[in-house]
Amino acid sequence: MEKDVSWIPEDEWAGVVANSPLVSVDLIVKQDGGVLLGLRENEPAKGEWFVPGGCVLKNERLTEAVHRVAEMELGCEVEICNRLGTFEHFYDTSEVDGVDDKHYVANGFVVEPLQPVDIADNQHSELRVFEPPFEGLHPYVQQYLDRMVWE
């Protein structure tokens, strides 16, 4: 039996963002001895180097969301290597008109791409691999990197 996995209709999204925390997955993409980050083109964190990520859809498992987000944002399949845990992200900005902030309950997953990675969405203008030591990155990205085990 196939699950009904769906997104919130656009006309209801503002109410959800204004009144509820959003459950999301963030992908810490290991590549070439570092992590792949995208330069964000939309709020929140516009203009920052950030991990790919997205909201979990109704009736979607976290691991299913990881694979969907990888395909949508990076155009590739990924292997999940590790789950870093749950993080709270509070932003003073939002992409929704009339909503001034955004709250995520983000689940961090370390992944490795199984194919070449490329920008597959309009949320990022550029992708770049950042290598340790990591400095000057967004504090939420730094939280993920601080929790990772580097081999």
TrEMBL record:
Its cofactor is Mg(2+). The keyword Magnesium applies. One of its GO terms (molecular function) is hydrolase activity. Residues 18-151 form the Nudix hydrolase domain. CDD domains: NUDIX_GDPMH_NudD. It comes from the Archaea. Keywords: Hydrolase, Magnesium. Pfam families: NUDIX (PF00293). This is ADP-ribose pyrophosphatase.
